[in-house]
């Protein structure tokens, strides 16, 4: 069959299946599957949010495709992102993870993930990570026509980053937190012409 057309409909690319998507999700099958079934869908469980928080931190400075291709390896390395298990990781675990070529071997990010697991446990006394993160949902969501219209931070992501850092979390800057909010459905930044716009049921 022909390659996806590049004729834009509200700055999206229409694939051979007739569905409009942003360019980043239009060609790579892995990215397309992620976009069509996972990205932007609500995540409301502690382990799921801790995983997303961790992966967004690892993604900083890298492409999301790189992280996505290593996702199963990350899950294996970090005990399926069970905060109680990861919180108990020690220096030997850090060295084990630094030797694991299947993940991103960044000591600061590895140590931050362990720290964040401990902070996630501590946050249970305040209602838990899910309630804490979702409490920063804005009153409105962006309505982008183009990728350039999508913000990289928001007042809410700035506030969330500040609040998480106050509670002991690391590698949770405003840009990373906005990406998290996009990924878990707290905001909907699907392009207006995309077939996934509004699919989360949140907006």
UniProtKB/TrEMBL annotation:
Q: Span of the secretion signal?
A: none
Q: Name one Pfam family in it.
A: Adenine_glyco
Name the chain's protein.
3-methyladenine DNA glycosylase
């Amino acid at each position: 069959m022909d390659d996806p057309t590049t004729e834009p409909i509200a700055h999206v690319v229409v694939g051979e299946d007739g569905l409009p998507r942003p360019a980043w999700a239009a060609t790579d099958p892995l990215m397309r599957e992620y976009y069509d079934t996972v990205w932007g869908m609500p995540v409301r469980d502690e382990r799921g949010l801790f995983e997303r928080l961790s992966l967004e931190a690892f993604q900083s400075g890298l492409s999301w495709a790189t992280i996505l291709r290593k996702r199963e390896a990350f899950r294996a390395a970090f005990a399926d992102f069970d905060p109680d298990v990861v919180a108990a990781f020690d220096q030997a675990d850090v060295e084990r993870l630094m030797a694991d070529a299947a993940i991103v071997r960044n000591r600061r990010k590895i140590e931050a993930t362990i720290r964040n697991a401990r902070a996630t446990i501590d946050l249970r006394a305040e209602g838990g990570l899910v309630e804490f993160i979702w409490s920063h949902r804005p009153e409105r969501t962006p309505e982008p026509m183009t990728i350039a219209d999508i913000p990289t931070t928001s007042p809410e992501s700035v506030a969330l980053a500040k609040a998480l850092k106050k509670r002991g979390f690391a590698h949770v800057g405003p840009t990373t937190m906005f990406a998290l909010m996009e990924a878990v459905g707290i905001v909907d930044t699907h392009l207006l012409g995309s077939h996934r716009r509004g699919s989360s049921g949140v907006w």
